[in-house]
């Protein structure tokens, strides 16, 4: 696999690793993650809220996994074996997944946008109540996967 180096406005190499591993951990593409407007904010937020050495270790393990995986299947297996099965990286991986899906870090929202752009809303085919309305006359369209 290739580490995404086409990242907007950020020179930090580890940022590219962060976004690339986020793709695999969340199941969303680079474009989908970037379209939230939160990738750089999340990266910097994590740097400010955990020990740099701990985050760097997670990113180095991620970098090695990405660079040594030739297929998506190998990458998925390596993430399971090298990140999700080791206590030193499991907690950070879970926090990164939660951050992308819910917009929270240790139970608190990162900012107002993190609630609105949480990936959970895409998965549910919904919108964040009180923050991002579905649009005019949206009530007249059946919900996705509606049985009625």
What is the structural class? mainly alpha
Radius of gyration: 17 Å
Please give the largest β-sheet: 2 strands, antiparallel
In helices, the fraction of residues equals 55-70%
Count the DSSP helices. 8
Distance between the termini: 43 Å
Question: What general form does the structure show?
Answer: globular
Give me the count of strands: 2
Parts with pLDDT < 50 across at least 5 consecutive residues: none
Percentage of residues in strands: under 5%
| Assembly state | single chain
Major sheet: order of its strands? 1-2
Order of helices and strands: HHHHHHEEHH
Number of domains: 1
> What do the pLDDT scores average to?
88
Would you kindly provide a written description of the structure presented here, covering whatever features stand out?
This is Membrane bound FAD containing D-sorbitol dehydrogenase. It comes from Chryseobacterium luquanense. It is a single chain. By secondary structure, the protein is mainly α. It has one domain. Helices cover 57% and strands 3% of the residues. It contains 8 helices and 2 strands. Strands 1-2 form a two-stranded antiparallel sheet. Helix 4 (52-68) runs antiparallel to helix 5 and helix 4 (52-68) crosses helix 6 (87-102).
Give a concise summary:
The chain contains 8 helices and 2 strands; from the N terminus they run ααααααββαα. With 148 residues, it is mostly helical. It has one domain (13-140).
Identify the notable features of this structure and list them briefly.
two-stranded antiparallel sheet, globular, mainly alpha
């Amino acid at each position: 696999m290739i580490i995404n180096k086409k990242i907007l406005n950020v020179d930090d190499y580890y940022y590219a690793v962060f976004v690339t591993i986020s793709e695999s951990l969340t199941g969303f593409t680079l474009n989908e993650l970037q379209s939230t407007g939160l990738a750089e904010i999340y990266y910097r937020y994590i740097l400010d809220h955990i020990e740099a050495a701990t985050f760097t270790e997670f990113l180095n393990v991620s970098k090695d996994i990405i660079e040594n995986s030739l297929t998506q299947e190998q990458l998925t297996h390596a993430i399971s074996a090298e990140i999700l099965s080791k206590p030193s990286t499991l907690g950070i991986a879970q926090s990164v997944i939660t951050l992308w899906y819910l917009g929270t870090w240790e139970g608190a929202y990162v900012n107002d946008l993190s609630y609105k752009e949480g990936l959970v809303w895409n998965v549910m085919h919904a919108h964040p109540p009180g923050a991002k309305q579905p649009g005019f006359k949206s009530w007249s369209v059946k919900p996705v996967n509606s049985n009625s």
